[in-house]
Amino acid sequence: MIWSACGINFCSSSSNLVPRIGSSKLLNRPNKHHYLDCKQKTNLYENRRPLKVVAYYGLRSPPYKLNALEPYMSQRTIEMHWGEHHGSYVDTLNKQLAKNDILYGCTLEELIKVTYNNGNPLPEFNNAAQVWNHDFFWESMQPDGGNSPILGLLQQIEKDFGSFNSFRVKFIDAALTVFGSGWVWLVLKREEKRLAIVKTSNAVNPLVWNDIPLLNLDMWEHAYYLDYKNDKAKYVNVFINHLVSWNGVMTRMARAQAFVNLGEPKIPVA
Ligand SMILES: [Fe+2]
Fold it and tell me: What is the distance in A from the centroid of ligand 1 to the CA of 20?
C-alpha cells in the first residue's frame, strides 16, 4: 500500500512500514532517502538494519552572539528563552515525530500546515509551530536594529498603513492587546496583495492562513519577564526602536515578491 503526506510517498509491506532509513541530523530538510521509491528503500533497509533515527530537527542558533542584543535583550533572557524554551520545543517535537512515521520527512513549514489540520490541530502542531516561530523571531532582530525600513519596503508600509509612524503605533497596539500568550506579526497577504498586522494565540502561525510572515514579536511572558517584568509596553517599544532587523524584513519581502506581484496591474496593450 502506498500513501503520501507532505508530498512524500510512503509504502508498507505486509504489516510493516517501509521505513525511514538512517539517522538524519539535517535541519528542516527531508532525508535524502525520501526521494527513493519503495523498492529502493526496501533494498537499502534490508542491507542496513537495524538503524535508529536519532534526530529530526535541530536547535538553530540565533544569528548573533547571545549577548549581542544587550542592553535591550539580556544574554540571560536569550539563554533561557532560546536555550531552554525554544530547545524544549525542538526536543518535544522530535519525540512526537519518533512515534508518528507519517509525518517524518516534512519540512517544518509543511509540518505546520499538515498538523494545523484546518484548525483542528494534531498534537505535533504546537511544538512544530513554536520551533518555526522562534527561529523566525531570532532572525527578526539584530544588534543596532530599530530605526525604520528604507526603499520599497518603506513605500509599501506607507501605502498600506499611511505612514511608518502609523504602522509603528498599530504594531505596538496589536502587541499590547494580545490576550494571554501569543505573537504579533507583520505579514504580506497573498490575495489582497497588501501588508497587514495580525495577532495569533499560543503557537498559531500565519502560514496556516497562507499569509507570508515578514516580522514577528514573541508576546509570551518568557520573552520579556526577566528584563522587563510586567512592563510589556517597554518591551514592545524597545523591540521596535532598537531591535527590529529591517534588513531581515526587506530580505523576506524580496523573497515574498517572487510569489506576490505588488506592482501596478499590467494592462495589455492591443
Ligand atoms: Fe518564546
Answer: 31
Residue that the C-alpha cell 513554536 belongs to: 130
Q: Report how far ligand 1's centroid is from the alpha carbon of 166 (Å).
A: 26
Measure 134 CA to ligand 1 centroid, in angstroms.
6
pLDDT tens-digit series, residues 32-53: 444 444 445 444 445 555 555 5
The residues near 73 (Cβ < 8 Å, ≥ 6 apart) are: 141, 227, 238, 243
- Tell me: the pLDDT tens digits for 163-196? 999 999 999 999 999 999 999 999 999 999 999 9
Ligand 1: centre distance to CA 59 (Å): 14
Contact present, 5 and 89 (Cβ < 8 Å): no
